[in-house]
Amino acid sequence: MNKIYHIGTVGQPWGDAEKVQWLNEQTIKRSFFDEVLPSINALKAEFDIEQYGELNYQQISGKTYPLYAVKSRNWQSNKPTILVSGGVHGYETSGVHGALRFLQTKAKAYSTTVNILVLPCISPWGYETINRWNPEAIDPNRSFGANGKATEALQAKAYLTGLKQSFALHIDLHETTDSDNSEFRPAKAAQDGSVNKNWNIPDGYYTVDDSEHPSPALQKAIIDAVSKITHIAEADENGKLIGEPIQQLGVINYAKASLGLCGSVTDAPLVSTTEVYPDSATATPEQCIQAQVAAVCGALDYLLSQN
């Protein structure tokens, strides 16, 4: 069933008035400062914490959100460097808490062989309002290309560029939720002035490879690791996941650079976007967090097996 969104006029792209109406409907539903920031600060004993930017949304929510990177210590040029990003879409809970759980439980052991950089919550306002977009109704995960406009993406990109660091691996942690069909895709169609056609929400975990620089063996290693934690999504009756042809069990491809996705932000030859399904009747929030950790570890184990 396709849903006509309640804001805007069918067939006409949103103007400023519609975006203001949308923003006025957003409310704070949970706290970045209570649920995420303390976990970042607690890592200071064993990791280096760098503030790479901030989001001044005082006029919108009365808050300024600090943006943090977490780095393993004793970086060495002869070790491969890996990036884990979470919360590009702030509403995707296990992306944020999976990145933090990896730091809390697994990162230190891996830091003997790799340099680790984690951006655990790129979109904290989106986290608090359980939102895909930022306050300007821009999707940060379409803003990492040359024409990107979301401040969240631009500040993360500027930080990474300033490091002048080559990366061997980048894992971007995401979720696919039922609200993609009930809210976010209809809203995007309304903003674009187009007609929304819902896709089937996959029941289970899957990954998104880069069609421009595919790494199928990496994706398989991730799927194998995650399958020990939760179930892998099966293709629909058309052999697709979220409207895209399946490449192998639990894997589809997107053109990441062309779409301005976070997965294109580094020069890493190995890239994967994880997609956890938190609304499954057979997956708990804890399993979703563990699945994200398993994905990162599976990717790291694959990287290290190639060296």
Overview features:
single chain; 307 residues; alpha/beta; Aminopeptidase; eight-stranded mixed sheet; 10 strands; globular
Strands, helices and their partners?
Layout: H1 16-24, H2 32-35, H3 37-41, E1 48-57, H4 58-61, E2 63-71, E3 81-86, H5 93-105, H6 107-110, E4 115-119, H7 124-129, H8 151-163, E5 169-175, H9 179-192, E6 206-210, H10 216-226, E7 240-241, E8 244-245, E9 251-254, H11 256-259, E10 270-276, H12 285-305
Parallel strand pairs: 3-4, 3-5, 5-10, 6-9
Antiparallel strand pairs: 1-2, 2-4, 6-10, 7-8
Helix pairs in contact: 5-12, 10-12
Provide a short characterization of the protein structure.
This protein is 35% helix and 19% strand. The protein has 12 helices and 10 strands.
Task: Please tell me about this protein's structure.
The strands form two sheets. The protein has an eight-stranded mixed β-sheet, sandwiched between helices. It has a two-stranded antiparallel ribbon with strand order 7-8. The protein has helices at residues 16-24, 32-35, 37-41, 58-61, 93-105, 107-110, 124-129, 151-163, 179-192, 216-226, 256-259, 285-305, and strands spanning 48-57, 63-71, 81-86, 115-119, 169-175, 206-210, 240-241, 244-245, 251-254, 270-276. The N and C termini lie far apart (49 Å). 35% of the residues lie in helices and 19% in strands. It has twelve helices and ten strands. Helix 5 (93-105) packs across helix 12 (285-305) and helix 10 (216-226) packs across helix 12. It has a single domain, classed as Zn peptidases (Aminopeptidase, 3-Layer(aba) Sandwich), CATH 3.40.630.10. The chain is α/β, with parallel strands linked by helices.
